[in-house]
Amino acid sequence: MALAGCGVVGGGVLPRLLDRPDIALVGVLVQTPGKFRSPAPAPGLLFTDPAAFLAREPDVVIDTLSDASVSLALIRAALSRGIHVVSASKQAVAADVEGLSALATATGATLRYSAAVGGGVPMLETVRLARALGPIRRIEAVLNGTVNFMLNRLAAGHPFEAALAEAQAAGFAEADPSADLTGRDAAAKLFLLSRAAFGPGARLPDRVETLGPDFQPGPAPVRQLAVADSVGGQITLAPVAGDPLFAELADAGNAIRITLADGRVLSRSGLGAGRGPTAGSVWADLSDLLASGVGAGTNGAEL
Ligand SMILES: NC(=O)C1=CN([C@@H]2O[C@H](COP(=O)(O)OP(=O)(O)OC[C@H]3O[C@@H](n4cnc5c(N)ncnc54)[C@H](O)[C@@H]3O)[C@@H](O)[C@H]2O)C=CC1
Ligand SMILES: N[C@@H](CC=O)C(=O)O
Q1: 189 and 80 assigned to the same domain
Q2: Is residue 32 domain-shared with residue 127, that is, in the same domain?
Q3: pLDDT per residue over 6-65, tens digit each?
Q4: What does 56-103 look like in DSSP terms, one character per residue?
Q5: Ligand 1 nearest-atom number relative to CA 65
Q6: Disulfide engineering: 205 pairs with which of 26, 112, 200, 233, CB 3.0-4.6 Å?
Q7: 4 CA to middle of ligand 1, Å?
């Protein structure tokens, strides 16, 4: 295995890798090799150059990089060599999900990205389950932990900058938190969910609302609500009083409600950001790969 990125998410995956005597960790890609890490990978395992990192010839690349363009290039390079990829980067995957999927199919590699949508909540898995039950009519979801955390803090009277600083300190926010605040992060997640629900014709949401310092909380709970159907999607700051799935989402909670064409409803909720839940999702994808006999070259699947 090779681990790209060792920050909030990668730093949660690393101890699990080091704890497994049956897993050989052959490289860790980082920007600052001298940074203190605990546990620390052996110095010879640290790389700053993606090409040198891939030259270690791992069976699986676990991508937890914060730079989407480096991430996308790395995923492409790995898949094109038949190396399986587990990614947490919604921006990288959403930037070219069809191309990456085609590449994986062509080389027999597997691309998985459960952690990229919903953090610790198995949202893509739930959409797949719903789709197996029947056609999906509509998805409604809270997809950004930072914004949910901030909306809760703002409703409790905390200042905007303090709420943002707290979300950053907790490891919920993106390296550039404007992705959270402008809805760009939720938009990439909604696109990936829409594609899973409605097929490859899915598009990015056409309306995305920003959470800014001018936001005035009222008495009713407001959420950054992502809604999509087969025609399109949008992300708005919407009142959700009377809808406990969304109204009662504490901290960095995320939730999804999937309504099938026949009226049946599936919903899931949990922690949408942070080290523990997100590293857990990455680990679940990795465990599925291991269980499927990774390295045998028999996959070519995507989730
Ligand atoms: N933090 C969270 O709760 C969640 C994060 N994600 C996604 O996981 C990914 C990682 O997020 P975090 O761990 O929070 O970020 P982070 O900023 O804590 O860690 C990023 C890591 O990537 C490395 N890195 C960045 N650019 C690099 C480059 N050019 N070359 C080599 N290494 C580079 C950094 O050195 C660092 O080790 C992002 O794509 C994020 O959207 C997904 C779900 C939840
Ligand atoms: N910044 C993101 C991290 C998880 O995807 C969020 O706050 O939801």
Answers
A1: no
A2: no
A3: 999 999 999 999 999 999 999 999 999 999 899 999 989 999 999 999 999 999 999 999
A4: T--SEEEE--S-HHHHHHHHHHHHHTT-EEEE--HHHHHHTHHHHHHH
A5: 22
A6: 233
A7: 9
